[in-house]
Structures are given as C-alpha cells and as structure tokens.
Write a structure and sequence with these properties.
This protein is mostly beta strands. It has three helices and 14 strands.
C-alpha cells in the first residue's frame, strides 16, 4: 500500500510544476526583470527602424537608399542608431535614434542632410590605424574634444547652378544633436553671365585634448572656364578663420573674452 505522505508530496510537486507552467517568469520572482522588447542588434531590422523614425519625423524615411547602423555616440553603454535616406540629387535626411528602457528606439534628431558617405567618422587627431602595444592611450579617450565626443558628417547639398559638399562637426548632449560647426569642403557655382566658380575648403583642430580647442578653417575660390572647367588664372581668393570652442560651439571669439 502506498504511503499517504508520498501521495500528498507527489500532489504538491505536481501543483508547483503546473504553476510554473502557466505563470510568467517575472511573476515567480520579483528580482527577475522582464526581457526588453528589443535587446539585440540582430533583432533590429530596416522596417522597425523606419517605423520608429516615422512615428516622429517631419520627413518620413522612405525605402529609397535607406540604411542604418548601431553605433555608440555618447558616454553610456547603450548603442544609438544612425539612419539616412537619399532622394533626389541634393535631397536626403539623417536621423539619430536613442534606446529607450524597453529596448525600443525613439527619434531624437532629424537633419535635412543628404549623406553620400554613411560611415560615421569621429574627428580624432590622435587616432592610429592599428592597436599596437605602444599606443597606450585608452581607446575611450580618443575622439574626445573639449569633453565632447565629436563626429563629422558630410552633407551633399545645392540647388540651381550650385553643388556643395559641406562638413558638419556635431555631438550628442542631453539627448540633443548639437551642430558645433559646418563649413564648405567643395563647391561649384554657376552665376548669371556664364561664370563658373569652384571653391575648395578644409579645417583643422588644434589643442583638441584641452578644454579650449581651436578650429582653423579656410577656403579658396577660383574662376573656371565654363566650357572646359580649366582655371582661368592662378589667382585664388582665400579666406581663413580661427574659431574657438565657446558655449558648446566653434565660433569667433567674442570681444569680452579676447
């Protein structure tokens, strides 16, 4: 004859198994957190990213030339998403999305930038092409400019008779995209009278690892033959500026701080 205590014990174990089968894990233990809705890069697809963008965007992200990447833009461990689409020759949009507590993403920045080269470049005077042992500086310090993690994005813009590539130096702060500086890299312009001009520009940062970096910018303009595109003379019109990092942006030094 089977002991009644054994039957009672077996019944109790069966009840526990049944409870575990039908109750969610989070209800069994208060210390077990629920799994985020999205928690792995492999689970994020193009359709989801466009949905997150279009929930807030002024210019919806179309399927045309759309692409996205997960990258780390700030100091926390969560990855952000950058995305873009390109429409006509000078039309496009650039988006930044931030990860929310539930694992989903929300649009925090939208720029009308037509980005021809999507690889996100961090401006970094100390960056090396390898990770040799002699490069002992911690990787997390690279690319930090006046305490900001600075990035460069190129915008291909223009209009009737104008074709321009401009650089934007920007960073994220408090969930906002701050455009710290923008300037011309290359520009071709045609003005009434069949005159054609070409401008080439660039920039360079100095004292990037200090609290007061200096940005040197310059651009040179030359008239071209409208038929051949050959310079009409060797004369260049060159302008240069020295900009200081003040109030979170590169700008001319105010009279009060000179």
């Amino acid at each position: 004859m089977i002991d009644k205590r054994v039957l009672v014990l077996a019944a109790g174990l069966g009840l526990i198994v049944a409870v575990q089968t039908f109750l969610p894990v989070s209800s069994l233990s208060a210390s077990t957190s629920a799994r985020p809705a999205i928690d792995a890069a492999t689970e994020i697809n193009e359709h989801q990213v466009r949905e997150w963008i279009n929930a807030k965007a002024q210019e919806e992200a179309s399927t045309e030339s759309f692409t996205f990447q997960q990258v780390n833009l700030d100091e926390d461990e969560d990855l952000e998403i950058i995305a873009k689409h390109n429409g006509a020759v000078h039309i496009g949009s650039f988006y930044v999305l931030d990860r929310q507590p539930d694992g989903r993403y929300s649009l925090i920045a939208e720029k009308s930038w037509n980005v021809p080269r999507f690889q996100l470049e961090r401006w970094d005077v100390t960056r090396y092409e390898d990770d040799s042992e002699w490069n002992t500086r911690p990787a997390k310090e690279l690319g930090i400019v006046a305490g900001k993690r600075l990035f460069e994005t190129v915008n291909h813009t223009g209009g009737t008779g104008l074709d321009t590539y401009e650089a934007h130096l920007w960073y994220l702060e408090n969930g906002q995209l701050v455009d710290a500086w923008n300037g011309t890299l290359q520009e071709t312009s045609q003005v009434p009278g069949d005159q054609l001009f070409q401008t080439a520009g660039s920039y360079q940062l100095a004292h990037a690892d200090s609290e007061h970096p200096v940005l040197y910018t310059w651009k040179s303009t030359q008239e071209l033959d409208p038929e051949s595109g050959v310079p009409l003379s060797d004369q260049l019109e060159t302008t240069a500026e020295v900009l200081y990092f003040e109030q979170g942006m590169f700008q001319k030094r105010s009279a009060a701080t000179k």
